[in-house]
Amino acid sequence: MKVISLVLILFSFSAVGEMPCYSALRFISVNEAPANYVDEHGEFSGFTTGIVKQLQNKLDINIPLEVMPEARAMMTLNNNANVVMFSISRTLQRESNYHWLGHVISKRWVLYSRYDSQDDVTSLQQVIDTKVIGVIRGDIREKWLNDKRASYVISIPSYENAIEMLMRGRIDYLFYESFGVYSTLKNLGYTSDMVKSQLVVTESDVYIAMSKSLGSDDMALALQQELKVLMASDWYKAHTEKWVNKLNAEKVADAWFAKGVLQY
Predict the structure, then answer these.
(1) Does 101 share its domain with 208?
(2) 231 shares its domain with 196
(3) What is the dihedral angle through the alpha carbons of 153, 197, 107, 242, rounded to the nearest 10 degrees?
(4) Within this chain, do residues 122 and 89 fall inside the same structural domain, yes or no?
């Protein structure tokens, strides 16, 4: 009996001190500037990407970052264990579906028209009742519009396709966010004055999240703690300051730092 008790005690100490198996993780993202995107040099960059790369360095995780369309990223997160996705909006509908590892961005959701639109938008209802609204397939804004019973919603596979459809008059509005719109315009050769911000609809808090599965709580807790330490560091302060300055230097929209996260 004493031998069994000793073995149990030793096992308990071993289990408590056991390090998470970070090599089992998979890191996925979408191409959505400025949080995470492929830059002009073909490198995966962005504000949140930098945080994830720093976390990987800190924990000696040598796992490539995967970039995929939004709908496939959400399907991957929903159907697989040990998947870390960045970045994803935290909503009431999603609250119990994932481990929310760290809040990194707060962003405004905006309805954009072409620059020559004669619409005088004073309410959301005015738009969702009569106008054709483009949104990215799988994006949280797609479900949000459908929940609002918007009359004419078109789901579009990529941000580049969405901008082109707006420019060609195939949609009346694009439901997106400031720096995402302007960076995509720039990549496609358009100037920032080709669109008009018509209405700030709402805003969302954006997180690094992890899929839920049997036994995933310990891994999620370890990553939450590591991110908390990282985001209280001098490195994070400098990283955020660099991105606020970088975004504001583009002079197309406003970015600032508040409540510990990047905001725009």
Answers:
(1) yes
(2) no
(3) 140
(4) no
